[in-house]
Amino acid sequence: MSTLRSVVKGVGGYLPKRVVTNDDLAQLIDTSDEWIAARTGIRERRIVADDELTSTMGVAAARAALGNAGLEAKDIDLIILATSTPDQTFPATAVTIQAELGINHGAAFDIQAVCSGFVFALATADNYLKGGQFKRALVVGSEAFSRILDWQDRSTCVLFGDGAGAVVVEAQKLNGAMSDRGILAACLRSDGRYRDKLYVDGGPSSTGTVGHVRMDGPEVFRHAVTKISEVIGDTLDQAGYQASDIDWFVPHQANKRILDGAARKLGLDPERIVITVDKHANTSAASIPLALNAACADGRIKQGDLVLLEAMGGGFTWGALLIRW
Ligand code: ACO
Q1: Is the pTM of the predicted complex or chain greater than 0.90?
Q2: Is domain 3-174 annotated with CATH 3.40.47.10?
């Protein structure tokens, strides 16, 4: 039986030039490399230059992904940007990326699911491609999180970084076997009862300001491992696979202790986890495509591999995707 599948054609990333180490932060606030590294695994992060925007980084990552796919901007008819740090309240930053790429057909819009944004965006693109509404999607995660941090709040500002990543996915007619390339399964979840555990204390309809990130770190941590493990289990069940079948686990890069906890609970081989949190910190919706880019560029992820993506973020939102690369 022939069916439409969303196949990953290319991946790209962009990181701002400025590196800020834990020792750099210890010059500004009461913290230390030991505290940050032991609690999170983070050693350094990138921070945007004054003239860089979420759209600027997104365009750079998108161009890299198009180049990697061997495609041109005109081949794209759907752009979905996952971000919590748009250039403006509106229009969607995705349309700025669309215009910068010189695309004026198809559709472009933003998705807001905080750190789960990329998983939500890729699952959304998958549905449009499988439904035959669009042919090729550019799915971008781009975040200038440094612009919404309270740099006096040591419990949050040490955790985040800036950057962008992108993938190109294409609808292909395949026979529907699990051995075929493409997105095999996706599960998305949210539970708004937890929206005050991780949020920004501003917004257009409330304060009229942009606001800063606020987080109950221990509460987020408490929920993360359980929720992540459950949604991964559901995603694997959907496709009829087990954790031992996974070639590469590419999680949202929030905290190495959360990643290790989830991997242990699922019995995933630690050697099979792609980790970038040490170098990038938590880049929210950009962290998964940046990690995919790193693991594809150095040859770890190869065509035919079974790749599991997972994320959890503010809302709470969480989800997982299984891809035959
Ligand atoms: N440097 C030094 N000390 C600090 C720092 C810092 N940067 N930040 C907090 N502390 C202090 C606190 O003030 C507190 O001191 P006190 O005991 O004197 O009051 C002490 O360290 C312990 O604070 P806790 O918040 O209880 O520290 P915890 O061990 O829980 O670690 C952390 C904090 C790393 C934030 C942890 O809770 C965590 O990882 N939570 C998950 C949050 C996360 O990853 N969020 C990312 C977004 S959500 C997502 O993507 C999944």
Answers
A1: yes
A2: yes
